[in-house]
Design brief:
Alpha-Beta Plaits
């Protein structure tokens, strides 16, 4: 079992230090990071906490999921692996991917298509 935890719906006032201290009561915390918008520097409202053991992570999830923090009900769950995102029309290891838009391409109204 993984020991990395996703924490969502955080109030914008939560910092890395406060996130770490809230999870520390359930066991050792390796890291705690609130995700910040790179342009504005404001919190994005979610973060990640890495616990030292899987047991501590499960205890924190059980105790904190659904808890109210500054009027917001937080979501606490195991973090999922990051998925690779491929832009439409971009190359990936499986080849080129067509766009998901139905109105793009030959024969669909517009120039060179049906009217």
């Amino acid at each position: 079992m993984s020991s990395k935890i996703y924490v969502g719906n955080l109030p914008y006032s939560v910092t890395d230090a406060s996130l770490k201290s809230n999870f520390a009561e359930f066991g050792g915390v390796s890291s705690a990071k609130v995700m910040m918008d790179r342009d504005s520097g404001q919190s994005k409202g979610f973060g990640f906490v890495e616990m030292t053991t899987a047991e501590a992570a499960q205890a924190a999830i059980t105790a904190l999921h659904g808890m109210s923090v500054d009027g917001r009900t937080i979501v606490v769950s195991l973090a999922r692996p990051r998925e690779d995102r491929v832009a439409p029309g971009a190359y990936s290891p499986t080849g080129y991917r067509a766009t998901s838009r139905r109105d793009v391409g030959y024969g669909t109204d517009g120039y060179g298509g049906r009217s």
